Amino acid sequence: MDIRPLIRKEVAVLKAYEIEDVSARVKLDAMENPYALPEDVRKEIAFAIADAPVNLYPDPQAKGLKAALSEYIGVPADRLLLGNGSDELIGLVISAFGGSPGLIAYPAPTFSMYGIIARSLGQETMELPTTDDFGLDFDGSLKMMMDRRPKVIFIANPNNPTGNLFDRDKVRRLIKGSGAVVVVDEAYYSFSGETFINELDEHPNLIVMRTLSKIGMAGLRVGIMAASREILTEVNKVRLPYNLNTLSQTAATIILKHGEVIDCQVKLIVKEREKLFASLSALDGVTAYPSKTNFILFRVSGASRIFEALKDKGILIRNMDSPGRLANCLRVTVGTPEQNAEFVAELKKMTG
Are both 27 and 129 inside the same structural domain? Predict the structure, then answer.
């Protein structure tokens, strides 16, 4: 039997998000925290996991983890909804507020999963224009939104893969004037310190998303949504029960008790980011873009060739090279001092 006629047309034309399965000695491709947890914290997690009731379903509301997150990020627990990574939360928001079809908007370039998830759910997508330095083109964006009226707008702030913060006033004006649900995705908040989370009460259409993945818990897959109780009530209707497993809830709750460990590692990464940016900027033929994240986007002639050459050396970064705004661009995660030094040294040989 040929199943192709049974596949939804929106899904048939999609290309899956591909994670390159490459064994790399120096892995700087996925915006992961390069530092392991201290041994005493790992032992505490191990003891707790050993006693975890994995024969039972997890707490469907993740009450313990929400309480820990409430203290860590300063938002009441009843204003939080958790997901199996931010990807799930993106899908839940679109499911709750999209149309038949609806229109989902986001600046471009940005995190590709906004468009992939939207199209997989039968939504149309609209790319909002950005300026030459990847800032938000407010006038152009507002005109497009007034003409087409998107249901949901995603704004990654700081943005991935460009690393920049959008102008705060422009984002605020979009929230107020768009007539849409606006999701400010603050996945890299820990490295920028800029947030809209304290403006939730001012904007009933605002959702702020966070994640634990970038600060050392990528393997746990914990996404965080903060919003009004009214928004959370609607999104919760399309959330699958037991969506966050017991082991992730247990481990994340323990790690958050050791917030000083997370904060120390974040400070190390920010310090290394500045050093790495300076090193890249000093290389002939390399244009590095300022970043408020844990990665740096840079442009170099023959980017795809250099990406493959680095991979042959056991150094894996992310190849962003594609026609348009990201032509000849590569993205490197900030690693340890040793990883960063080796990456820069090899890159210098290839561009010098």
Answer: no
Closest CA to 239 of 97, 82, 66, 87: 82
Q: How far apart are CA 316 and CA 22, in angstroms?
A: 8
Residues sharing a CB contact under 8 Å with residue 316, sequence separation 6 or more, in sequence order: 20, 22, 24, 26, 27, 28, 29, 310
Q: How far apart are CA 52 and CA 48, in angstroms?
A: 6
* 150, amino acid identity: P
User: In this structure, are 91 and 210 located in the same domain?
Assistant: yes
**What would the two tokens of residue 47 be?**
């003891």
Judgement on whether residues 237 and 337 belong to the same structural domain of the protein: no
Residue 321 falls in which region: left (phi positive, over 0), alpha (psi -120 to 50) or beta: beta
Instruction: Mark whether 20 and 97 lie in a shared domain.
Output: no
Q: Which two tokens stand for residue 28?
A: 């700087």
Alpha helices per DSSP H over the chain: 9-12, 39-50, 63-73, 85-97, 113-120, 138-148, 168-177, 189-192, 229-236, 246-257, 259-281, 303-312, 337-351
> Per DSSP, what are the bridge partners of residue 208?
184, 226
Q: Is the same domain home to 88 and 33?
A: no
Neighbours of 258 (CB within 10 A): 15
| Tokens of residue 19, six digits | 């994670």
Each residue's pLDDT, cut to its tens digit, for the chain (352 residues) gives: 888 888 888 888 887 777 767 778 999 999 999 999 999 999 999 999 999 999 999 999 999 999 999 999 999 999 999 999 999 999 999 999 998 889 999 999 999 999 999 999 999 999 999 999 999 998 898 888 888 999 999 999 999 999 999 999 999 999 999 999 999 999 999 999 999 999 999 999 999 999 999 999 999 999 999 999 999 999 999 999 999 999 999 999 999 999 999 999 999 999 999 999 999 999 999 999 999 999 999 999 999 999 999 999 999 999 999 999 999 999 999 999 999 999 999 999 999 7
List the structure tokens of 161: 């893969």
Same domain, 109 and 238: yes
Domain of 119 in residue numbering reads as 52-257
